[in-house]
Amino acid sequence: MIIKRADDVPSSEITPERDYLNRRDFLRRAGTGGVAFSVAAPQLLAACDRAAVDEAGGEVAGQETPNSWEEITSYNNFYEFGVDKEDPKANSAHFKPAPWTVRVDGLCGKPGDYGYEELVKPHKLEDRVYRLRCVEGWSMVIPWQGIPLGDMLKRFEPAPSARYVAFTTVLRPKEMPGQLRRVLDWPYVEGLRLDEATHPLTLMVTGLYGRPLPNQNGAPLRLMSPWKYGFKGIKSMVRISFTERQPPTSWNLSAPEEYGFYANVNPEVDHPRWSQGTERRIGEFRRRRTLMFNGYADQVASMYSGMDLKKWY
Description:
Blueprint: H1 17-29, E1 31-32, E2 35-36, H2 42-55, H3 69-74, H4 87-91, E3 101-106, E4 112-115, H5 116-120, E5 126-133, E6 138-148, H6 149-154, E7 164-169, E8 189-193, H7 194-197, E9 203-208, E10 211-212, E11 222-224, E12 237-243, H8 250-254, E13 278-281, E14 287-289, H9 297-300
Parallel strand pairs: 3-12, 6-13
Antiparallel strand pairs: 1-2, 3-4, 5-6, 6-9, 7-8, 7-12, 9-10, 9-11, 13-14
């Protein structure tokens, strides 16, 4: 069986949201074996969506179907809006993602404050279908839109001494009620090694399903490195800094024995409180085996050659 990598799936093969919504409307009204499908059972409906695609022969063998807009925007981690998966959607309506400015500083030739349009307009937006694996053990397949981060970073002319890139989320507790709770030391900070940041897979995300990125998913700019656990995908970023030393990261500062700097998806290294060997894809009932580097090993494993991945987790 030939299995496509997630990044090989063209945007033309993504189920259009209109078709998805039409199927869901049909399934809500229909019944199987006399049992009606309820609006209150979104996971059941999503599983039926996938079954309907299979029965219609509309899915290539081995291809992963992207999760729906509803699933992606209704179930995610964004602690700035609350710790429950439903909180980001419920609490982000008053967040203002425009106008937006990102400060670029540190070891680079072109530091400064860059507006959203200055950052995005010089680049052609690309559609990328990536797996997202969260450290808690759930996963999704998401059709992102964005800019290869490496292309953006080149414009700032990183100095030869720059080995890392640090990122910072906006601090607006009046608009982000989760920041009123000391769950983490706000603002949220993250970082990548420079070779990770400039890898072709790493994306500065600006949209989802061809639409602008919703507030609850990190508007207007978020990071996506698909071979890493989801907490590396910092959202609503307002600062990019080039550094020589490894930058601090929020979850590593909060619980270093649980969250490492690298955060590469690795089914052989368990979280102290649960296994990482399997995952639950949102919309499915069964658990599936977690893939090394989230299935992107052939593209990224060489960056970690010779490293003890149990030590550098």
